[in-house]
Amino acid sequence: MKHFVKVLLQNPGTVSLALFTREILANPRAMGAACPSAPALASYMAAQVPWDREGLVLELGGGTGAVTAALLKRGLPPWKLVVVERSPTLAHHLRQRFPQLRIIQGDAAQLSQLLSHEKTKSVGSIVSSLPLRSLHPATTRAISHQFETLLDWGGSLVQFTYDLRGTRSGLLPRFRKLSSKIIWSNLPPARVEVFERKS
Fold it and tell me: Which of 1, 18, 96, 194 is deepest in the core (most CB within 10 A)?
């Protein structure tokens, strides 16, 4: 047993996979991914965030931290990034892995309330791993409303989905799609879409 724990501590990827598996078995509909994001998916999502935009970058559904790490690796200043994760277990994991970041445990449908204590209220970009298509329609509408309320006009929303046909336009009525790309190397393949907040 001690050897097993030592191996886990020496390999953060193993810890992340174990945590992810536990969470998806406990609440599969709430998890945005079938397995942790592959480096190619995380890197591509991070690359879609414009660095010159004012305001915070919100990452929603931080999970085990694959996209978080990619955002930091690309050069996003830690002070500019806020990560929201619904699962208490995964939020705790993220706080341990990224002690320099603000990790908020809570529901994205209540983003305005969760961010009420942030000094910087402006949100320039949102990077979302939330399973918008598999959530209850009322929950998806509430999250979409939060996107509309918080994101600055012209702000970017980076969203991935396992539905390779893409996000239905009705899910994000106040957004214009700018680009869409399938990351075939992810398991399973995922489509990354970039939207702009319309005025």
Answer: 194
Residue 160 identity: F
Residue 128: closest CA among 70, 52, 69, 194: 194
List the strands of the sheet with 123-128, edge to edge. 102-105, 81-85, 56-60, 123-128, 151-161, 190-197, 175-183
Give the model confidence (pLDDT) of 62-76 as tens digits: 999 999 999 999 999
pTM assigned to the model:
0.82
- Between strands 151-161 and 123-128, the pairing is parallel
Is 2-197 assigned to CATH 3.40.50.150? yes
Whether residue 59 contacts residue 67, with contact meaning beta carbons closer than 8 Å, is answered with yes
Domain limits of the chain?
A: 2-197
pLDDT in tens, 138-153: 999 999 999 999 999 9
